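Fold it.
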Amino acid sequence: MGKGVETRERILAIAEASVLAKGFGATSIDEVIAEAGITKSGFFYHFRDKNELARAMLLRYVETNDRLFDNVFGRGRQLSDDPLQAFLIGLKLLAEVLADLPSGHPGCLIASVCYQERLFDREVRAIAAQSVQRWNARFRATLDDIVAVHAPREAIDLDTVAAMMSCVVDGGIIMSRLLDDPSRLERQVLAFRAFVKLLFAPAEIARPVQVATA
């Protein structure tokens, strides 16, 4: 990795940590420059303005999530030829990865874009929307594979179930941060896994279970 690439990655990492900690509006270019140990001209060599920084930061975040999904769900497909079992394995692995982060998942840049929409340009908002749509399409394709083998026990819109995955992960991140409880995210993913398992379970084995209480 060349020095220029290393500097760019360091700027992005510092900016991402700041945005996740206190929001995009409260993150200044000056503080990023100071922490990165570069000059203003060095910063503007890599990023024309703050919105360009936001675009690069968001694309970096999306690529990281894509790699995570590719790894855990790809591993599930390697371990089982059954699409349902492969997805359940992938969800279990995802929960384990999220639980193993030192302080829980650091946050969700897409949520930051939604909350502070007026601070971002149209391209940044489009990147956020397109990434969520792509993740929804990914999980809808997985559900289509499952339905081809396992009929759902209830009539349900598969697009809604696919979108639940993003809602569970992003909502779990927000809840974990608000309640200062990193384990919330892992538990939300495992609850979604249980829902999917029950949705496609044969009727004769889908029996009531004892509800756990806090």
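Residues 68 and 94 are 8 Å apart (CA to CA).
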